[in-house]
Amino acid sequence: MMRFLLVSVLLLSQSALSYSQKDFINQLLKSHDFFETELINLQIKRIEMLGDQANYSNWDWDISAELGRIHKDKFKYDYTSSTDYAQNTNQTVQKISSDLSKKFMSSGSELTIAFDRSLPIKDEEMHDKNGYQTDKNTTEYLNDLSVSWTLPLLKNKNGLVDQKTYDLAVLDYKDEKQVLAEAQEDFLAEKAVDFIDWVGYQWQLQVVDSTINKLANMHDKLASNHTRDRDILSRSLDKHKRLQQSLKSKLKAQNAVLLGSIDTIDFDKDPPILNQKFNIHLIDDIKQYCQTKVRDLKRIKIEISKNNRSIETYDNSTLPDLDFSISATRDDNKGNYTSYSKSSETEYEAKLVFSYPLSGDITNQVYLDKYRLKSRQLALKYNNKLNDILADVKKNETEIRQGQIQLALINKQLQALNPYYELNLYADNQSDIRFVINEADDYQALKLEKIDVLTGLYQDKLTYDSLLDRLLPI
User: Fold this and answer.
1) Cα–Cα distances in Å, from 268 out to 18, 156, 255, 264, 451?
2) 113: left (phi over 0), alpha (psi -120 to 50) or beta
3) Predicted TM-score (pTM) of this structure
């Protein structure tokens, strides 16, 4: 009883320090440089998406300035009027303009605010029918302020045409998220196979070590007059030690493989483990699960969404332009050389503008027909991919169920088998040493077969989880 308690405590202490496959996967996700490249691609897509959004809906402010000089020569023939006219004009023009505009994503409307300020300075030679008059210097200014708002009612309604680039960028960003997750899961699946192989070699080595210890103990206890039996045991021990050395070499190589992925593992302190009682959750409604969870199908759905978004754009572009706009304009003007007057004028306008090319837009129609046909292609692509995944999952599920049946049979055999039956008979001089060795070999072979089936089941489980995209932690 005391020995049982000591063994139980030892097993519990080892499991507390063990390194599970889940620990391995989580550490890979946190530490491996492989994912940095994919994360950069995702960040690039996000920058492009936000750039398209800013390009569409941010305030756009333009400012310009103008400085120039104008010279005019004018001569009137047979001029009889008493009204003065400028025969020679030199004009310096100073002007500043500013335009501010913004589009609104919710409606597709556009707001524009414009302001112009000019300050011409004129130096003119004035003439009438009596000839040359004195020069007159005139300074004028002109202020123009306008505000307008335009709302599309048919073509580009709700910004359907203008927002296409941004909407596609959003879908590209969603797709890149799926690409990143898929790359991570493929990488984890590959590395998890190495983890399973390590545990498998360790299990096999433990079985062979147990057989060697059993045979070595027998060898040491045999009396010197059992020379023939000792020689037979020695040859058997040599055979098992060769297998032991081979497994040690494989385990050492597998250590290097795992350390190549994560160099912080201490195999002596935290040995990788798997539960020798195999469990797996198999999905009942596999088709419905795949349609909602599997990334390959999600990516095709994103393709379909992008295609539908293009169809909406080109379909809407076949409609006439019908825009409603309202605007207000104010002009402030000062002076001319005859009256030096000042004036202000304010104008309000509301209008509907309709236009439609009677010949239609051939290029737009070509793209519309193209993307409508592509819809059928994508539907076929989705169904084919779904059927392929279902076939792979069902095949993998069958292999898992067969493996579970085989594992249960082996466990039943192991429970029914007494690995010390021939040894006990030999101790009573009722058996031959060869039967004892055969018993040990058969027991070892059955244990190794169990390990082979068990590691195969874990690899099948890995494939199952990878096919259903549930290997990556949420």
Assistant:
1) 10, 67, 11, 12, 22
2) beta
3) 0.81
Dump strand ranges (E) for 206-360: 321-334, 342-355
Yes or no: say if 280 and 400 are a contact pair by the CB < 8 Å rule: yes
- Other beta carbons within 10 Å of 188: 26
Q: Average pLDDT in the 355-369 region?
A: 89
Sequence-distant contacts of 4-12: CB under 8 A, at least 24 apart? none
**Nearest to 467, CA basis, from 302, 303, 298, 295:** 295
- The b-or-e profile of 458-469 (16+ CB within 10 A means b, else e) is bbbbbbbbbbbb
Q: Give the ranges where 347-417 is alpha helix by DSSP (H).
A: 362-416
pLDDT over threshold 50, residue 14: no
pLDDT one-digit tens code per residue, 176-228: 999 989 988 998 999 999 999 999 999 999 999 999 999 998 888 886 767 88
pLDDT for the residue 11 = 34
Domains for the chain: give ranges and CATH numbers. 16-55+164-318+364-467 (1.20.1600.10), 60-148+323-355 (no CATH)
Residue 308: CB atoms within 10 A of its CB come to 15
139-156 pLDDT, tens digit each: 677 788 999 999 999 999
Angle at 61 between CA 55 and CA 65, to 5 degrees: 140
34-57 vs 164-221: helix crossing angle, rounded to 10 = 170
